[in-house]
Specification:
elongated, 4% strand, 2 domains, 13 helices, two-stranded antiparallel sheet, mainly alpha, two-stranded antiparallel ribbon, Rhopdopsin 7-helix transmembrane proteins
């Protein structure tokens, strides 16, 4: 017997087009940010690092997740469940599982990329241990979420086959349980380099700017929080209709995560295109006392630049000393702050 919808429900409503239009904008911006990151590496004349390869992986899985949402819309995502044929509903549920797997891979890959980038610019055994611990949690949680997504029903095909008896984890609670730890890990990763940055030899204004570049990842936390709000309102009895907000913000979250991982590396490109906006003044590490000075230093680290100079102690009558930041830190901050000639 057909279900009679309540008077407030219009079975002709379709929220699908609003998803695809909005997602397209986000996807284009993400692709541009990745291109900008890779082109910045080219401008620096350095090879791609491990952080670049992991963010490329994250971008590819984010694209896969986006394609799944597009396909879902053609099958009936955005419509009321009463008007979606059972065959299409089965395909939507299969795509939902695939989307959750890709979501976990993307979020994990972007976090690992950021942590690897931290390792490249902030050397040191203690910081390396801290990033390794966080990375271990990220990988372990990502693997756990993938396994739960696959085996959330017993039997497994009970997730998408509504005609067989099965026992499944409550879908909404699974999504929420996935989101909360990810938000916590995002906050930890965002704050991880702050102590390093604020102990660098630079002006207060410059510390704020460098910190701001890293804290752009806070947009991921905002996207995750909004997604969590939509998860609270998701109704599995009308999944194709109520899942729209969650699907949209899931795609936004993974794409914003990729963009946030790319922004701190794009300084060379942005300085070429908008140098006046990004120019924040000349800068030098340490102090120049009598008997000391700035000596050119060529370093073969991945972030080397002909414009980079590192203060060195030179023999002289003065016993004053110069604080010498680690080479990788020197080079990254110079890249961040270098004036356009």
């Amino acid at each position: 017997m057909a279900t009679i919808p309540p008077p407030s429900k219009n079975l002709g409503d379709n929220r699908g087009p609003e998803i695809t239009q909005s997602i397209t904008v986000v996807v284009v911006l993400t692709a541009l940010s990745l291109i900008g990151r890779l082109f910045s590496r080219r401008l620096q004349k350095v090879p791609l690092a491990a952080s670049d390869y992991t963010i490329i992986l994250g971008w590819l899985t984010a694209c896969g997740m986006t394609i799944i949402i597009y396909i879902g819309v053609t099958l009936g995502l955005g419509k009321h469940i009463e008007v979606v044929p059972l065959e299409d509903m089965t395909k939507i549920l299969k795509s939902t599982m695939a989307s959750e797997i890709l979501y976990s891979i993307t979020i994990s890959a972007t976090k690992i990329s950021i942590l690897l980038f931290y390792r490249e610019i902030f050397p040191g055994p203690r910081f390396a241990i801290a990033t390794n611990i966080v990375a271990a949690f990220v990988i372990a949680w990502g693997v756990a979420c993938i396994l739960v997504a696959i085996f959330s029903c017993n039997p497994v095909n009970g997730f998408w086959d509504l005609t067989i008896p099965s026992k499944c984890i409550e879908t909404r609670m699974f999504f929420i349980g996935n989101s909360v730890p990810n938000i916590i890990m995002d906050v930890v990763i965002l704050t991880l380099p702050m102590n390093k940055i604020w102990h660098l030899q630079m002006q207060f204004k410059q510390k704020l700017i460098v910190s701001g570049l890293f804290l752009l990842g806070g947009f991921v936390c905002i996207s995750s929080g909004i997604r969590l709000l939509f998860l609270q309102d998701m109704d599995v009895r009308n999944l194709t209709w109520s899942y729209v907000g969650t699907a949209f913000w899931s795609v936004v979250e993974v794409n914003v995560a990729v963009m946030s991982a790319c922004f701190p590396t794009m300084r060379p490109l942005l300085q070429r295109t908008i140098p006046k906006l990004l120019s924040i003044g000349s800068f030098s590490f340490g102090s120049q006392k009598k008997g000391g000075g700035l000596v050119p230093c060529e370093n073969t680290h991945a972030f080397r630049s002909k414009d980079i100079t590192v203060p060195q102690r030179v023999p002289g009558p003065s016993q004053g000393h110069v604080t010498i930041p680690k080479p990788a830190e020197v080079q990254y901050v110079n890249i961040i702050q270098r004036e356009t000639a």
